């Protein structure tokens, strides 16, 4: 197990200093080290109390330390050598302070309003290159119209608020279910991670336009069937932008008993759900796992879709990436345990995950590691994909590497660079998908019929 979580500590620290200096200029920012308001001014349950913001906590250095922090119900957004950045409500922050932690409030999400009121239900004008749910669908429909033999889509179910959740298929003879290894890309489980939707659109565009001219793309679309679920959490994504001021929202928009809203979709999957202190059973927490596995309609819709790819008793999907932001990491299972191998994950399984994961990280410059090297999580999609479906699965945490690069809200100017940055890694996964064990020289043993 790796102990050094990130290599770019210097850069992260410099960025943090930059944020601290910039903080007073940001309307949303609180003086560092203090609550935005005295607690008395924000009675429990008030809008202020529920507002989510980021805090830096100095001290936590190991996966165990970070798991303990996460168990208070906050989300751990960044793990550095000797500190973490978390997202928390004022209430949760108070709880952590009560446990003796010193929390330093970071600047809130950028306003980017250019002095004008934002259009409701859209990104601020300065971030106009990001796609709303409607714009995403329009862009996908355009690509399908341009490449009807290559791209198709189907509605695989509905979100809690009734939005369509779609799966886009890309392959030669796209209308036929051919005997080709299938590969899955999922995006936007977490509402505020908007760059992941752009990643999906980048893939649809790059594969659609590259077929016939880009040799690697052409070969992969000829020999693979690619599934992209571009927006697992459309309700959360729309909620995050609808006031014109980013809400730092993570969850879906399903109401819970007791009045709080939202389930962490990436703690709601049906493998070792809630097993190991890697999620919260408290509604209102940032990692609330839901009332039972697949209690969130969005989780169930995607899980049903994946189960539906079992044909004649064989799962057709061989490999998958679930896109998140941020921290620039390539992660592999399991998340529920810090052991390298466990039930259903042999040394060879682990080594093949690591070999392909490390090669992908080599190409995009991310840091490769087992997901629990960060902190323990249970009920995550990657554990379910491998543990339940034997699909090789990765989580990519995209740009930036730290809060200094914009955290969950990098400016739209970075979209092209930070999505195309993953082209080679995605192609590598597709190229390996017919036999992931080739990466450890064990094709004969595992991949011969
Ligand atoms: O905690 C998460 O769900 C992911 N990080 S995020 O900041 N985007 O919320 C990481 C999930 C990685 N996979 C597992 N830990 N199993
Ligand atoms: Ca811009
Ligand atoms: Ca095909
Ligand atoms: Ca097929
Ligand atoms: Zn995420």
TrEMBL record:
Signal sequence interval, chain numbering: 1-29
Needed cofactors: Zn(2+)
InterPro entries: CARBOXYPEPT_ZN_1, CARBOXYPEPT_ZN_2, Carboxypeptidase_T, Peptidase_M14
Protein name: M14 family metallopeptidase
Residue ranges of every copy of the Peptidase M14 domain listed in the record: 129-433
Residues at the catalytic site: 397
Organism lineage string: Bacteria, Bacillati, Actinomycetota, Actinomycetes, Kitasatosporales
Family annotation (PROSITE patterns): CARBOXYPEPT_ZN_1, CARBOXYPEPT_ZN_2, PEPTIDASE_M14
Record's keyword terms, sorted: Hydrolase, Metal-binding, Metalloprotease, Protease, Signal, Zinc
SUPFAM superfamilies per UniProt: Zn-dependent exopeptidases
Residue span of region Disordered: 27-51
A matching Pfam family: Peptidase_M14
Family in the record: Belongs to the peptidase M14 family.
Record keyword Hydrolase present: yes
Coiled-coil region(s): none
